[in-house]
Amino acid sequence: MEAIGQLSSGIAHDFNNLLTIIIGNLNLLIDKNPTNTELIELASPALDAGKRGAQLIQRLLSFSRQQPLKPKVIDVSTLVADITPLLERSLPSRIKLAIESKGGQPLIARIDAHQLENALLNLIVNARDAISESGLIVIRTDTKILNDTEAQEFDVPAGSFISLDISDNGFGMEPDIVSRIFEPFFTTKDFGRGSGLGLSMTYGFVKQSGGGILVRSEPGQGTTITIVLPIHQDYPEEQVIGESEQPTIRREGQLVLLVEDDAAVREIVRKQLMELGHPVIESTNASEAMRLINQVADISILLTDVIMPGSQNGRELAQEAKIRKPSLHVIIMSGFEDLNKSEINRPTFTSLSKPFTKKQLAFALGKA
Ligand SMILES: Nc1ncnc2c1ncn2[C@@H]1O[C@H](COP(=O)(O)OP(=O)(O)OP(=O)(O)O)[C@@H](O)[C@H]1O
Ligand SMILES: [Mg+2]
């Protein structure tokens, strides 16, 4: 597990840089040639493939529990209700989806809502693939009190949990399959249909969130996957926040100092910044960047990579720059870093994970 963790974070860092270049340039190419259908026909699948690559990296990090989570206080039954239309759209009409939630009682968890939605979508797609003709998928939300034996099965401490059951009446699994389904890249699906990362990712995410997961399956009968999640106790002290964050302020025209050691990444980010109406000066390392901040009074935004050659990394640069110039807006862009861990006890900066779109960049520029 540790080896896979190290491997995937290493891959993530390099691949996210490469994907930033691929996705960013293809996006600009398409944006600049809106009427050239031949170009769009060729570039769009390449862009989609780049985005799939980014998702794959995300899933790999998620499996090895290395992904930075963004937990929020949410009501799990509301999340399920909200995502139901999307789940239904991923099912053919021969498969029905039923939602059962216990008596409207709120099920408050502190969890990364986006990851939970992804996990649900994965489970629904698995259930769909297991149903060859018509069938039924049921999502049940409830609370569960786990005694010692049950808690052991879920690999969690005994106590109360939020539970999510996803059941299907598909073809089920033999025990030798069940024992392998959380392995990364284990799939029984044809090449191109499944990467075998869905459940390993779900497993990693659930464990990282303090929960557990259990599979029951009967060949020919169907499968039930149960996820238990810790109940968030501090409710209602902390406010339940919705998912949709809107870009706020626009800082068009303000000078950006872009610090990035990879030339091609720097070039595409510069182009994106210029498209968003920002003049840009560039630097390849922290010490030079610090000199520029001291010399060029007009710099109002610092957009910096984290891992760079030289004695200082981007985060240290950001801290020093902020002390020197408190009005500076700072955005940290990282190919891979456990943002949750590293931001404890430190001033928090707006962060942007590579690869990112122009829209995400615009959002970060407004938020910083
Ligand atoms: N509900 C289910 N019923 C029957 N078999 C299942 C079910 N869920 C998972 N499996 C089995 O577990 C395997 C691994 O599932 P997993 O979601 O990890 O990968 P995948 O679906 O094959 O590919 P990916 O999710 O990456 O597209 C599947 O290939 C399938 O054999
Ligand atoms: Mg799957």
TrEMBL record:
Residues covered by the Histidine kinase domain: 10-233
Keyword Phosphoprotein annotated: yes
Reactions performed catalytically: ATP + protein L-histidine = ADP + protein N-phospho-L-histidine
The EC number(s) this enzyme carries: 2.7.13.3
Residues modified to 4-aspartylphosphate: 305
UniProt key word Phosphoprotein: yes
Chain ranges of the Response regulatory domain: 255-368
Alphabetical keyword list: Phosphoprotein
GO terms, molecular function: phosphorelay sensor kinase activity
Source organism, top-level taxon: Bacteria
Name of this chain's protein: histidine kinase
Organism of this sequence: Fluviibacter phosphoraccumulans
Phylogenetic lineage: Bacteria, Pseudomonadati, Pseudomonadota, Betaproteobacteria, Rhodocyclales
